[in-house]
């Protein structure tokens, strides 16, 4: 079920909100929310619901076992078992086919025939990357004695399955929402309603009015990757970078808005990332919940920046490599992660030697160009397509004829890119807007939501659903 669908907006969401606020006992409310969230997840494919419940059960039991003993060896065994289970789920469903295909490619290159190791046709359970990271952070935090275990199984199941963040984040840590689950909002206050509707309407507008409008132009350019000139190449790179931002930040805004309507507060996931002055700042502003997860559960345990410059650079590279692999089982994602690792290494070395440009505008431009170039690799189905688009952006295929530019880009698409670039660089993001529950505010919000809903025909999935 999509947030940007009629059945969600006019059926599922009203039903959940009415039931959530009519019920009074906290345990009953959480049980109701859990069942509704399971239904939301099963709407995609009911066969994978037991998988999520199994992951929930393993981590809940692990949390209880971790606080039942102080024996270091036993606690480590529980932690490794729980993490191993979640990583095994990710490894099989998300990466087994990828690694087998890679082995087949090597075998074929060595003359062993076509698909010498066979093939796997595994369906990727939607949201598995997000709910496994939620679960793993819970177990790790309990092991570190940074958080108390969930009050009961329903309490924990509600956290994992909470439908606003279940499919594509933000990655919400248990420590963020623990007290909110223990003290539920008794009613939908005007402030919660205003905040919830504001974020939901902004996210819906970003997705339907901007991202989905850019999408067909971007798809067409990437489809004709071998025929692009300089202008069309940059239109493809900029168009996709903006499409991805408005699509994913739109989803995150909608998730935050839905959480507000239920009385919860989710963390911010985007903070004007394209206004960053360096690549390190970009990762503090882009997909913030994932960036901070990778920092706290991967980069710092690897040693962080504590053991000298070269180990710091190594840890950055490993973290970004695994961050790229987390996004998808394809070499394009791996290379995208390695590119960002390289960008971070170069930035760190340049900063330490005082070689970064003094101009903020120049720094922002360099960072943005690097991000856009890397997103071309992220979007491309393979490196051949990425190479064609990047070489066009570098001017290796010429400027492109006027006829080709008009056919590939067009005035409307070009105007949208310019407007979107102005938006992401000059306008405040949704977290910076002061929310005022007044009639004029409500009218503007209603008009924005109505305009977005009128665009719903065949709802398009959010881009991060594939991860």
Folded structure, characterized:
- It is a single chain.
- The protein has 467 residues and is mostly helical.
- The protein is 70% helix and 0% strand.
- It has helices at 6-22, 26-42, 49-67, 72-109, 128-143, 153-161, 163-166, 174-182, 190-223, 230-262, 279-285, 288-299, 309-327, 331-352, 360-379, 383-393, 402-408, 410-426, 439-453.
- Helix 3 runs parallel beside helix 5 (128-143), helix 9 (190-223) runs antiparallel to helix 10 (230-262) and helix 12 packs across helix 13 (309-327).
- The protein starts with 5 loop residues before the first helix and ends in a 14-residue tail after the last helix.
Shape: globular
Number of helices: 19
Q: Determine the mean pLDDT.
A: 90
Radius of gyration using CA atoms only: 23 Å
Following the backbone from N to C, one meets helices and strands in this order, namely HHHHHHHHHHHHHHHHHHH
Share of helix among residues? Answer: 55-70%
Instruction: List the uncertain runs.
Output: none
Structural class: mainly alpha
| Distance linking N and C termini | 16 Å
- What does the largest sheet look like? none
Strand content: under 5%
Number of strands: 0
